[in-house]
């Protein structure tokens, strides 16, 4: 066999085995991560909402894979976002709340002008520098990375981003995004400029806009669309915010299409935590003062932790819908696998591309999560702020309060998706099985 024949034979063999050519290997996919801020898992057209219109997110779902039973690890913004960017549970990355608790004698009002309190804020931000993050890991492959929207961990560079919008300086109002919070609400140009700047280099975009998060100030044209007799104005505003967010997603997707980037871009979608809009008619416990209903944000219930998770990668992922239990803990391993990197030894999540390839099958026994107080009681000690742990296995969900005086809760999610009937007393065997799984996960004896 001459040299030319040998080369042809080898080429055919490589192609038949599905091995990428050197040229293909030099072009890893771009990554675009879209993170909704405070939106219920029900409030999407692709999830069956009868009123809210989300045609662009629905398009992502139709052109990609929609996991309808997705969950985040916790129902509060900052620790949830930290999980997404690290692939670690809050008790691993130790960013468990939104803010440090003010020391005794320091009132909350004006605390961010107090040097002692600002030192605590700095210690909390330092946690992100102690663990690997997606931008730092992707840099190994030559990725440029852009931070926009919500970002609590100081200057964007502290998370490993090469580019960003957030300065994080508390003296200039830095807390949870500052200048970054303009993205979406004031246009998408910073993202478009970044992608143009990349000029063929692989890129990672963190699009975590302050949408549909309060303040609920939608464009008047959208508010009018959702105003209806008998519908509280608070709900109409929230619905309009959901569509406004969806419009910005459409602008991003359309830009990728116009630039011919869609086929080599993995787009992922998730919500950081749930939200059920409080209205004057909402039945609430005495003394409830927040603008969201009790069983949503900051709670262990599905209204706070459940989310659709979507992956779209044209030509690489075939459209499908799965009811497999998946988690935001899986996003980092999936992104790393897509670009040819191994997840770190500490990352407990699974590669969702493998789940997709297996037609939605996944062999793990359960998914887990943890709920903490809004304020971090002791930086570096997650247990000091812990309120609940939760576990879902199949159709069952167990909620374990940190306070032993509170009742254990067990729900059969298939028959009772809004968790109205506590079945813990009538199914002690299920409680014991899920408690054992949760304890093994919490104590590091099993991955989840």
Note down, in words, how this protein is organized.
The protein has helices at 3-16, 22-25, 55-63, 77-86, 90-93, 115-125, 134-138, 189-198, 220-226, 233-258, 302-305, 331-338, 352-357, 428-442; strands at residues 30-36, 65-71, 99-100, 144-149, 163-164, 203-208, 265-271, 306-312, 320-322, 326-327, 367-372, 375-376, 386-393, 396-401, 409-412. With 448 residues, the protein is of the alpha/beta class. It has a single domain (28-360), classed as Alkaline Phosphatase, subunit A (3-Layer(aba) Sandwich). Helix 9 (220-226) packs across helix 10 (233-258). The protein is globular. Residues 1-24 have low confidence and may be disordered.
State the name of the first-level CATH class.
Answer: Alpha Beta
Q: Characterize the overall form.
A: globular
Domain count, please report it: 1
Q: Determine the fraction of residues in helical runs and give it as a percent range.
A: 25-40%
Quote the average pLDDT. Answer: 93
Q: Return the CATH topology.
A: Alkaline Phosphatase, subunit A
Order of H and E elements: HHEHEHHEHHEEHEHHEHEEEHHEEEEEH
Identify the CATH architecture: 3-Layer(aba) Sandwich
Instruction: State the total count of DSSP E strands.
Output: 15
